[in-house]
Amino acid sequence: MATTGNAGHQVKESIFAWEGKDKSGKTVRGELRAGGEAVVNVTLRRQGIMVTKVKKKAYRSGKKITDKDISLFTRQLATMMKAGVPLLQSFDIVGKGHANPSVSKLVMDLRADIETGTSLNQAFRKFPLYFDPLFCNLVGAGEQAGILEDLLTRLAIYKEKTLAMKAKIKSALMYPVSILAVAFIVTAVIMIWVVPAFKEVFKSFGANLPAPTLFVMALSEFFVAWWYLIFGGVFAAIYFFFRAWQRSLQMQRFMDRLLLRLPVFGDVIRKATIARWTRTLATMFAAGVPLVESLDSVGGAAGNAVYLDATRKIQNEVSTGTSLTVAMQNADVFPNMVTQMVAIGEESGSLDAMLGKVADFYEEEVDEAVASLSSLMEPAIMVILGVLIGGLVVAMYLPIFKLGSVV
Question: Any stretches that span the bilayer, and where are they (predicted)?
């Protein structure tokens, strides 16, 4: 955003497509972000270009920018820089070639900042919603050390592996949740529409109904009378639960601890958290970021309040001269294998390589755990659905089975 000198008001900038002739008379074209056509003309005139045409580009609103978009952008930028494509040209290629207009706008905003002399690290820091401190710190370290291409490649690998890990955990958790949601909806439909139809038929039987049938019919009457409160209450409870989870720090800590203690899923979540923790620290350490400074980003990247608290404790101990191995043992949240590998890495001077191996190991463990979890959950869910839906059907058909004796 540009600012007017006198009034101090922000000028809304837009992208302008221009065409003109350079000093040699050759026709040149391009795009420029500016506050108006007059600014475009002045800027290009200073560059020795005689402008013949300027047109404001219409901005199409796009989809929300996701972590996957940022991961793909990082990979594309790293690939082009390794191929020797200049930085500004790389941004042009990525921005113009992306299917999501929101990403294209973000990339062109970054390009405009870099074109004015801003460092890549500082340009990324202007968009904290998409580029976290870990991302910016690694880019800054790469710029200072002159190994930006290598650091962007490491960042792309890190983001791809993190996204893959999150997707596996979500798929493992979403499968049973979605099945239970469908079971609730099917049960509600049976209670509200199917059971009342049976109830009308049973009135003509002139005999006492079995206890299971009476129970289901009473439940159906409750559903029919209060269906709006039941559905409204369920959806409101889910909505406010997730809102509280997002906004309340105490709620986040409680849920993070609870998730780690779940009977089956807790072990998978713990392994995934350790994989992210070690992968993040390995990436930071390999980039040459000091250990104490690296731990600033590691705790948040782990995605769990228990490990965030443990990381802060580890950071405090390391800053006073304690070895990383001892500090991790004192935190009491890492398995013995992890601390032993870290000890070997510290002794051999290859801490980043050892942390990377730990991350690889736990990522494979998560893959196997999710695969076995899916195969175990399918029959269990089938049994639950069979008992629930089958029980309702049997309860409603019991009077029909006894119809012969009544007649």
Answer: 173-195, 215-242, 380-400
